[in-house]
């Protein structure tokens, strides 16, 4: 009989063949199946999930709700192969969704992040070039971390200065233009990559061993850079710690773009629909949320609304 970890290998291989990026899910589910295998569980069940939850470490209900969702999706698939499988109820963990207030980086902080990433140590220097290029790319394009990591070589057209994002969060492909400085940095990284690594994966961003750069590596190296420049406190045992996230680079791009529109006197509503498409949001409301979440944007919106009322009354 196959172990839970062996079943997980099959599940991940199937979903990846369908185009899903499962680097984060794998990290969680691998710990779940390893715990089950090591503690005598040969099938997924409610007792297994609750036992794992009780011994896995502290986290809030929102986090455990997401983990439960990952386990349930795995269990639904496994039930087709092992009729002993019990899909844990979605009511085991009740979450209250509260969208996290974004951290908006100052331009100097972004510059410091990119510069510090360029100082990360490695035998041949590819680690520094990899993460410096990736962090900078996210900051200037606002793409998701998963979208940047999923870029294949064919998706990076340096001659036309266009990136093609495929199999995105909402299942739609889209293209993003990049400017001269970004093209030059991408070309520099690609040249160094091709010179240093003989056997390479098809992905654009790869590590020194030739394997694709992943979500865990991105978050680990971003946390290390953030600690080095004082954005996060020092941590023991290679823990990430708390503080601004790599995803906040995307939020910062969106907020600075909207701020520029306000200052230029543009039609914000019309521009926001364009930004929603650019960012790959499923609905415009996810883009308009930035105005509510960032006090400076809310103040600018209120001032503009007040001016319109006064102009209408005069």
From TrEMBL:
InterPro entries: DNA_brk_join_enz, Integrase-like_cat_sf, Integrase_catalytic, Tyrosine_recombinase_XerCD. It holds the Pfam family Phage_integrase. Belongs to the 'phage' integrase family. Residues 100-303 form the Tyr recombinase domain. This is Tyrosine recombinase XerC. PANTHER family: INTEGRASE_RECOMBINASE PROTEIN MJ0367-RELATED (PTHR30349:SF41), PHAGE INTEGRASE-RELATED (PTHR30349). GO terms for biological process: DNA integration; DNA recombination. It comes from Thalassovita autumnalis. Keywords: DNA integration, DNA recombination, DNA-binding. It comes from the Bacteria. SUPFAM superfamilies: DNA breaking-rejoining enzymes (SSF56349). GO terms for molecular function: DNA binding.
């Amino acid at each position: 009989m196959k172990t839970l970890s062996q079943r997980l290998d099959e599940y991940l291989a199937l979903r990846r063949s369908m185009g899903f990026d499962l680097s984060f899910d794998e990290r969680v589910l691998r710990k779940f199946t390893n715990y089950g295998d090591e503690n005598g569980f040969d099938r997924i069940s409610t007792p297994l999930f609750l036992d794992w939850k009780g011994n896995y470490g502290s986290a809030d209900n929102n986090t455990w709700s997401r983990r439960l969702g990952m386990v349930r999706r795995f269990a639904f698939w496994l039930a087709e192969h092992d009729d002993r499988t019990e899909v844990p109820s979605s009511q085991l963990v009740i979450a209250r969704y509260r969208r996290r207030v974004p951290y908006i980086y100052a331009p100097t902080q972004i510059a410091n992040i990119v510069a510090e990433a360029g100082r990360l140590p490695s035998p041949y220097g590819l680690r520094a070039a990899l993460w410096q290029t990736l962090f900078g790319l996210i900051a200037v394009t606002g793409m998701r971390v998963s979208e940047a990591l999923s870029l294949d070589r064919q998706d990076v057209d340096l001659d036309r200065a266009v990136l093609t994002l495929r199999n995105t969060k909402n299942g739609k492909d889209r293209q993003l233009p990049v400017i001269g400085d970004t093209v030059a940095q991408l070309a520099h990284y690609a040249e160094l990559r091709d010179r240093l690594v003989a056997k390479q994966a098809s992905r654009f961003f790869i590590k020194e061993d030739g394997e694709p750069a992943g979500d865990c590596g991105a978050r680990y190296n971003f946390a290390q850079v953030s600690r080095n420049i004082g954005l996060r406190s020092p941590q023991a045992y290679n823990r990430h710690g708390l503080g601004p996230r790599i995803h906040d680079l995307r939020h910062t791009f969106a907020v600075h773009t909207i701020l520029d529109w306000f200052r230029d006197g543009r039609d914000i509503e019309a521009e926001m629909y364009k930004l929603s498409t650019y960012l790959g949001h499923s609905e415009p409301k996810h883009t308009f949320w930035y105005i509510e979440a960032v006090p400076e944007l809310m103040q600018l919106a209120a001032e503009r609304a007040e001016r319109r009322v006064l102009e209408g009354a005069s």
